[in-house]
């Protein structure tokens, strides 16, 4: 993820649900045409497209773009190297997310079972 020193260089992400490509461009210090190119190169980056094919990015997309930017510009990865780095980090994140969801589900099901038994 981003190091704190790199985080300070970029503006704080506002608490909005969706961002336009222009807003993301400013938040990540990357030009809009670069963002469109990265969408083709990185499968993790999929903004919502609405009428007229307008792109709307969510907070997670902005964080992903910042991570890609750090890999390419700060750490010197190539596009292929950054793509590989991102794909290696993805399964670890998904596994922990699934684990957390499963633990919560089990806990809720045990609560339901206790209620039904009483």
Short description:
This protein has five helices and two strands; from the N terminus they run H-H-H-E-E-H-H. It is mainly alpha-helical and 118 residues long.
In words, what does this structure look like?
- This protein has a single domain (4-90), classed as Orthogonal Bundle (Multidrug-efflux Transporter Regulator, Chain: A, Domain 2).
- Helix content is 67%, strand content 5%.
- It contains 5 helices and 2 strands.
- Strand 1 and strand 2 form a beta hairpin.
- Mean pLDDT is 85; it is low at 1-6.
Feature tags:
118 residues, 5% strand, mainly alpha, Multidrug-efflux Transporter Regulator, Chain: A, Domain 2
Elements, N to C (H/E): HHHEEHH
Lateral strand order in the biggest sheet = 1-2
| Helix percentage | 55-70%
Mean pLDDT: 85
Poorly predicted runs: 1-6
| Sheet having the most strands | 2 strands, antiparallel
**CATH architectural name:** Orthogonal Bundle
Q: Cα-atom Rg, whole angstroms?
A: 18 Å
Q: In total, how many domains does the architecture comprise? A: 1
Number of helices: 5
CATH class: Mainly Alpha
What topology does this entry show?
Elements: H1 4-9, H2 21-28, H3 32-41, E1 48-50, E2 54-56, H4 59-74, H5 79-117
Antiparallel strand pairs: 1-2
């Amino acid at each position: 993820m981003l190091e704190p020193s790199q985080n300070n260089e970029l503006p704080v992400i506002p608490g909005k649900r969706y961002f336009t490509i222009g807003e993301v461009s400013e938040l990540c210090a990357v030009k809009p045409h670069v963002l469109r190119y990265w969408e083709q190169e990185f499968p993790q980056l999929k903004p919502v497209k609405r009428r007229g094919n307008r792109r709307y990015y969510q907070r997670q997309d902005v964080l992903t773009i910042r991570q890609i930017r750090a890999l390419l510009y700060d750490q010197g990865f190539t596009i292929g190297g950054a793509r590989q780095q991102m794909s290696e980090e993805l399964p670890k994140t998904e596994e922990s997310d699934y684990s957390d969801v499963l633990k919560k589900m089990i806990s809720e099901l045990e609560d339901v079972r206790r209620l039904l038994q009483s």
